[in-house]
């Protein structure tokens, strides 16, 4: 790092709504501008069409860093080819998007951090005897340099990141998580939605308490856990662990390292594994079907315990509420 930003830049964006004792004073917003842009370099990215309440641009050195937090809204982070972090802030109040110049009962801090920025937001506290607290949420659309460490969290919306060559951490308490085309360690966690990950090179941890997990084209150690949905792994390689309490597991694995564990309490398991690797296989369920033509060991209608190619990497497939099917990748 050639430069560290030692001076803390703090933008306090406080524009409070004006209230009367008898009700809310309406504010007109003539000439509101709509920002329409397909963010980042990813193909097929959705277009954002909503008013931009505030825009901030901060020059950074690379590798850069961003830590963005909000409540009630979504966060989308993508990359561009400039050494600059660009933050577009969208504020939704009582069901309507606000435009630049509109009053918004929120406090937003954009602070310098070493080689990047940190963003924090809180709702403005309503004062007065008869004032009611408006419904408000804050969303971000953020562009960062390709080499940027990303951390993003929200308490009530979706969070996503695309086209990043660094570590990514995405956390939400109430929405889906999407991460695509990332080289680096990835953490994707939600308490109330699905997780989708595609084209990941690096260790990946995906955890959800209330949705399914789908991971496609991932290379590295992988942990996928959900309490309430299915897990689908397609074209993954590495050390793999997938567990669910409430759904099936469907896995197509191109290469294994260290171990493979697939476990569910409420569904079936289908495992398509690589041919030619030495594996020690244990499988159990209400019914177990093996299509491995070189398997040696004990095979029964409800279990398999054996090896292929002399054994080696431990493979455990277990379900208490469904069937197990094992076969080779074509």
Notes on the structure:
This protein has 330 residues and is mainly β. It has 2 domains: 7-25 and 44-156, no CATH class; 194-330, no CATH class. The protein has no helices and 31 strands. The strands form 3 sheets. It has a 27-stranded mixed sheet that branches. A hairpin with a 2-residue loop joins strand 9 and strand 10. The protein is elongated. The two termini are 47 Å apart. Mean pLDDT is 85; it is low at 1-47.
Overall pLDDT score: 85
Low-confidence stretches: 1-47
**General shape:** elongated
Rg, please?
Answer: 24 Å
Number of domains: 2
What layout of secondary structure does this protein have?
Elements: E1 10-15, E2 19-20, E3 23-24, E4 34-38, E5 47-51, E6 54-59, E7 64-70, E8 75-80, E9 84-93, E10 96-97, E11 104-113, E12 116-123, E13 136-145, E14 148-154, E15 159-164, E16 168-172, E17 177-183, E18 186-190, E19 195-201, E20 204-208, E21 213-219, E22 222-226, E23 231-244, E24 249-264, E25 269-273, E26 279-284, E27 287-290, E28 296-300, E29 303-308, E30 313-319, E31 323-328
């Amino acid at each position: 790092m050639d430069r560290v930003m030692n001076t803390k830049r703090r933008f306090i964006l406080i524009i409070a709504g004006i209230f009367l004792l008898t009700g809310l004073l309406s504010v007109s917003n003539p000439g509101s501008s709509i920002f329409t842009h397909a963010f980042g370099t990813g193909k097929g990215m959705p277009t954002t069409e909503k008013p931009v309440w505030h825009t901030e641009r901060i020059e950074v050195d690379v590798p850069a860093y961003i830590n963005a937090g909000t409540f009630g809204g979504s966060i989308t982070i993508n990359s561009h080819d400039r050494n600059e972090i660009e933050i577009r802030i969208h504020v939704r109040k009582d069901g309507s998007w606000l435009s630049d110049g509109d009053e918004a009962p929120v406090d937003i801090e954009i602070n310098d951090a070493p080689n990047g920025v940190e963003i924090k937001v809180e709702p403005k506290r309503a004062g007065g005897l008869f004032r009611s607290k408006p419904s408000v949420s804050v969303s971000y659309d953020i562009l960062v340099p390709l080499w940027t460490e990303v951390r993003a969290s929200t308490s009530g919306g979706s969070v996503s990141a695309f086209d990043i060559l660094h570590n990514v951490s995405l956390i939400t308490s109430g929405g889906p998580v999407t991460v695509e085309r990332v080289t680096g360690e990835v953490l994707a966690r939600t308490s109330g939605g699905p997780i989708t990950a595609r084209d990941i090179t690096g260790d990946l941890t995906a955890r959800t308490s209330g949705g399914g997990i789908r991971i496609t084209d991932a290379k590295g150690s992988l942990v996928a856990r959900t309490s309430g949905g299915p897990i689908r792994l397609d074209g993954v390689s590495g050390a793999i662990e997938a567990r669910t309490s409430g759904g099936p597991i469907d896995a197509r694995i191109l290469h294994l390292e260290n171990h493979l564990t697939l476990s569910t309490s409420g569904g079936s398991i289908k495992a398509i594994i690589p041919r030619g690797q030495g594996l020690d296989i244990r499988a159990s369920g209400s019914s177990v079907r093996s299509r491995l033509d070189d398997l040696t060991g004990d095979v029964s209608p409800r279990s398999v315990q054996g090896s292929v190619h002399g054994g080696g990497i431990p493979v455990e497939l277990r379900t208490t509420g469904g069937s197990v099917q094992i076969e080779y990748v074509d």
